[in-house]
Write a structure and sequence with these properties.
With 119 residues, the chain is of the alpha+beta class. It has a single domain (3-114), classed as Nucleotidyltransferase, domain 5 (2-Layer Sandwich). It is built from 3 helices and 4 strands. Strands 3-2-1-4 form a 4-stranded mixed sheet. It is globular, with a radius of gyration of 14 Å. The termini are far apart.
Length: 119
């Protein structure tokens, strides 16, 4: 691993730690955690008090999630909002996972808001 890549990963881990020190989910208002890789996007609804995942959506193995990564992110946002509605969850705390609130992360958040989630 190059020195530049190691520095980039270290900075992202620090940002993630700063976010997680403040953001925590409960059963009434779970944490919406977002992970974006080069090929796939994952979103989870997490109750940090009981350490349980209340909902989970990923593009891995999904035939319905096609198009650009931004389109996939919008699909994941819509699906996770649907799972939240089914679990009678209206509000969440958004955890962007150290990523900038831009592009794919913002597309997922906007789609979730459009589908009825509040954060």
């Amino acid at each position: 691993m190059s020195k530049q890549l190691a520095h980039k990963l270290h900075n992202r881990a620090q940002r993630k730690g700063r976010i997680r020190s403040v953001v925590s989910g409960t059963a009434q208002r779970p944490r919406l955690s977002v992970y974006v890789s080069n090929l796939h996007i994952t979103a989870q609804l997490i109750d940090d008090t009981s350490h349980k995942t209340l909902g989970y959506v990923t593009t891995v193995g999904q035939k319905t999630a096609t198009g650009t990564m931004t389109a996939k992110a919008s699909w994941v946002g819509t699906e996770i909002a649907g799972q939240a509605k089914a679990a009678k969850i209206k509000t969440v705390v958004f955890d962007r996972g150290g990523k900038l609130y831009h592009g794919r992360v913002a597309a997922l958040a906007d789609a979730a808001r459009k589908a009825g989630l509040e954060f």
